[in-house]
Amino acid sequence: MPIVSAGWSVVKGSTVRGMVTFDEELRAHNERLRDAAAVRSGEWVLDIGCGAGQTTREAARAAAPGPVLGVDVSPAALERARELAAAESLRNVSFELGDAQTHAFEPRRFDVAISRFGTMFFSDPLAAFANVARALRPGGRLVALVWQRHRDNEWAVAIDEAVGSTMAEGLSPFSLGDPDVTTRILERAGFADVALEDVDEPVFYGPDVAAALAWVSGFRDVGDVLSSLDPGARERALQRLREVLGAHRRPDRGVAFDSRAWLVSARPR
Looking at the predicted structure, is the pLDDT value of residue 4 above 50? Predict the structure, then answer.
């Protein structure tokens, strides 16, 4: 899950293949985000950290004829996003390469800003959310998923223990895991009515241990640790990881771990 997800740091999809798998990994979370965003026909939507564009395309279908813009820092992910949108003949969606922290959005342009685990790696979250707040119209809304603390996410703890990687709470997937800190950041950035709803949904790593191992081994932190080990130590770490993944495989859903996230909602002041 991405301990970077093809880009996410724990990972977000550093490759197109990884990004598509990322969509499958987060399918339960995606439903929660879609329901909470409740995009309506005619609304203007901004998707922050859109990756290969699954959430952007879903928003485009709901918002039509309203325009939807997906922004991401990965050219490869955006290339795939454009291909998928074209294949679905979506004419009200566009994608731009950019960092939402500094991107020059037109002020007061969007009705809704959404993000599926795309806001945790801002080097300056206060500046980033202030930039998003300025892009929202009065009465607009922000709806985003972020991970809760590292210790509350079974997937992160289990993988760390298996291979000896360490995912810090700082500039990491868990940087917005403290609800009080996140609330203060959003309020200082120009948001009001900040609310964090607990999301207790599984993450899915594939139908079997082999598929899950291939996916998890691609997490950036995991890959960094494995590449630093001598062959014998690396094989022992991989064996521990296989055992952990096997212990979390069920016939009805494949390899899955518990996870905890916040569904964040707020409105610009």
Answer: no
